[in-house]
User: Which sequence fits this backbone?
C-alpha cells in the first residue's frame, strides 16, 4: 500500500512539473510516464487515464488550497463572523495560497493560452471547490440583497489575474505586484472592500 501511494504521488508531482513547464499541448501518458519514471500502465491502473489523473491533481492540496487552508483551519469560525469580514479574509487567504504555489500559477497561465478538454477538467474541479465553499455560507446569503456569487467572481478573477501577472510583471497600475509590500496593500484594500460591500445595516 505504501509503494502504491508513493507511486501515485510521483505521478501527481510529474503532472505539475510537466504542465508548468510545457503546458497542455505536449501533455500525454507517455511523456508523463517518462517524467515520473513509471510504467504508463500504472497511470491507468491508479487513475483510470488522463481525465481521472487531472481530477486527482486538481483536487490535490499541492495544486489547489483546501477549504480548511483558506479558513485557517476553522471553517465554522468563519461562518460566525460578520459576512464582510468572513468573505474578505477568505479571499485574502485564497490569494496567499495561490502566491505560495508557483507551479499552480504557471499552470493557470497555460490554461489561458491553451484551453482544451484537459483544462476543462481542472476548471470543473475548481468550480466544484467553489460550490462547496458557497454551500458553507448558504444560510448567510439571505443577509444581503447583493449578489455574493457575482461579487466574489469579480474579486476572485482579479486575484487570479494579478497572481498570474506577477510571475513576470513587477508593476501593475503603479503597484508592485511581485513584492510583499504590494500584496499587503492589495490585501488591506480587499478586506476594506468586502467590509464596506457587505456591511450590516445600522440599527436605528
Assistant:
Amino acid at each position: 500500500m505504501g509503494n502504491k501511494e508513493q507511486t501515485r504521488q510521483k505521478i501527481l508531482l510529474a503532472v505539475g512539473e510537466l504542465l508548468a513547464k510545457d503546458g497542455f499541448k505536449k501533455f500525454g501518458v507517455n511523456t508523463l510516464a517518462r517524467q515520473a519514471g513509471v510504467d504508463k500502465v500504472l497511470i491507468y491502473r491508479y487513475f483510470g487515464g488522463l481525465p481521472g489523473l487531472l481530477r486527482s491533481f486538481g483536487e490535490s492540496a499541492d495544486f489547489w488550497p483546501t477549504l480548511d487552508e483558506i479558513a485557517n483551519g476553522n471553517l465554522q469560525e468563519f461562518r460566525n463572523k460578520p459576512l464582510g469580514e468572513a468573505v474578505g479574509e477568505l479571499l485574502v487567504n485564497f490569494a496567499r495560497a495561490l502566491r505560495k504555489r508557483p507551479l499552480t500559477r504557471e499552470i493557470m497561465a497555460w490554461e489561458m493560452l491553451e484551453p482544451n478538454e484537459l483544462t476543462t477538467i481542472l476548471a470543473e474541479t475548481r468550480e466544484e471547490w467553489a460550490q462547496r465553499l458557497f454551500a458553507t455560507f448558504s444560510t448567510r446569503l439571505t443577509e444581503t440583497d447583493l449578489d455574493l456569487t457575482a461579487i466574489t467572481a469579480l474579486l476572485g478573477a482579479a486575484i487570479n489575474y494579478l497572481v498570474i501577472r506577477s510571475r513576470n510583471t513587477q508593476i501593475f497600475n503603479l503597484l508592485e505586484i511581485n513584492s510583499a509590500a504590494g500584496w499587503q496593500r492589495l490585501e488591506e484594500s480587499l478586506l476594506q472592500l468586502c467590509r464596506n460591500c457587505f456591511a450590516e445595516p445600522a440599527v436605528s
